[in-house]
Amino acid sequence: MSASPAVAGETSRFYAATQWQLMWRKFLRHRLAVLGLIILTIFYTIAAFAEFIAPYDPYRRNTRFIHVPPQKIRFAGQDGFSLRPFVYGLKQELDPVTWRRRYVEDPSQRYYLRFFTRGDRYRLWGLIETDWHLFGVDGGGTLFLMGTDGSGRDLFSRIIYGTRVSLTVGLVGILISFVLGCLLGGISGYYGGTADLIIQRVIEFLLSIPTIPLWMALAAAMPKNWSTLQVYFAITIILSVVGWSNLARVVRGKLLELREEDFVLAAKLAGASDLNIILSHLLPGLMSYLVVSVTLAIPGMILGETALSFLGIGLRPPVISWGVLLNDAQSVSAIALHPWLLWPGLFVVLAVLAFNFVGDGLRDAADPYQ
Predict the structure, then answer these.
(1) 53: pLDDT confidence band, cut at 50, 70 and 90?
(2) Which of 77, 139, 190, 191 is buried most, with the most CB atoms less than 10 Å from its CB?
(3) Can you give the pTM of this predicted structure?
(4) Which ranges constitute the DSSP H helices of 311-328?
């Protein structure tokens, strides 16, 4: 009995699919991986359009609104239900017990939420000057979705801007470590001998050094008069120098298996150079493993930058990153009085989890025995 045309067509497409197409189909069946991919897509979209999405200039200080708690977006108030979301105005009061200044809602002032509003001027991607923002409130009102910091700056806008730095430092860093890991791991696995001995001892030396003290020592060596851009790239290089060793070991182990295959011997007999054999024949054979390793290494880069900036020896103000923002929440008293300063930590957790979910999905999709 012959199969139906639909089944036959699906079967033919399955057998004609490339390795990447089969990986993609299997990846889509991993629900957590798909969720992680959606979260990362949202994050990188935010990073690309941070100026437009943020309702305020992240450097704008307002001494009238220092350490304001997050404002609630409402659909109902004292006057009943409203189809248009709004926020109440804010007024200052003194706490009769602690004598601290606090902010309370003023129901007599209602400001409606609007999309595509005008606000602080900015240059999108440094090219297009405009003052359009994704959302905001009526003139005279405030919209502090995640509160403000000790200088009266909108924390939500600063987190949006920090997304760009914290997520791109991982990508740039992993690009450098990817090149170093593939190159040195390829040399170690393909040639063996003295080259393998030297490279493996270097890797073991790097892995034996405690990670945080190593980062602290390298970051502390940067001159204090460097610009924020120089510090940014220096942090990237530091994270890359430390992060290439694990990938190099993966590449070495795979090349030790593949270098004895018949296709490698055929390439040698055809006159291919060693570099061409490594780049064109060996590394593509383990590309799926490299993709997984890179995906799982990016969270380490993000956490490394966050840890250095949190300790005050990485990126420094006026640069905005999640680690720099978390630096304001170092003391227990700051967290107890202003717990919303921990919001950047939530974004770090979400980004790291999303990368790990995607890495798990890619690992399962690349496993031929699953």
Answers:
(1) very high
(2) 190
(3) 0.82
(4) 322-326
Tokens of 57: 């200039």
Beta strand pairing call for 101-124 and 80-94 = antiparallel
Amino acid identity, position 234: A
**What does the pLDDT read at residue 38?**
95
Instruction: Give the residue among 282, 279, 288 at the shortest CA–CA distance from 260.
Output: 282
> Which range among 78-82, 179-183, 261-265, 323-327 shows the weakest confidence by mean pLDDT?
78-82
Does the pLDDT of residue 282 top 90, yes or no? no
Bridge partner list, 154: 148
Q: What CATH number labels 159-366?
A: 1.10.3720.10
Question: 14 pLDDT band (50/70/90 cuts)?
Answer: low
Cβ within 8 Å of residue 155, ≥6 positions away: 144, 146, 147, 148, 149, 325, 340, 341, 343
Cα–Cα distance, 180 to 238 (Å, whole number):
13
How far apart, in whole angstroms, are the C-alpha atoms of residue 5 and residue 9?
A: 6
**How many CB atoms within 10 Å of residue 55?**
20
Kindly list the domain boundaries of the chain, sorted by start residue: 71-143, 159-366
Q: What is the dihedral of CA 245, 250, 253, 258, to 10 degrees?
A: -130
Where are the alpha helices (H) located in 49-137, listed in sequence order? 50-53
Count the residues in the chain. Answer: 370
Distant-in-sequence contacts of 7-15, Cβ < 8 A, 24+ apart: none
**Dihedral angle computed from the Cα positions of residues 366, 34, 54 and 123, in that order, rounded to the nearest 10 degrees:** 40
Structure-token pair, residue 61: 């200080």
Task: Determine the Cα–Cα distance for residues 174 and 298; give it in Å rounded to an integer.
Answer: 6
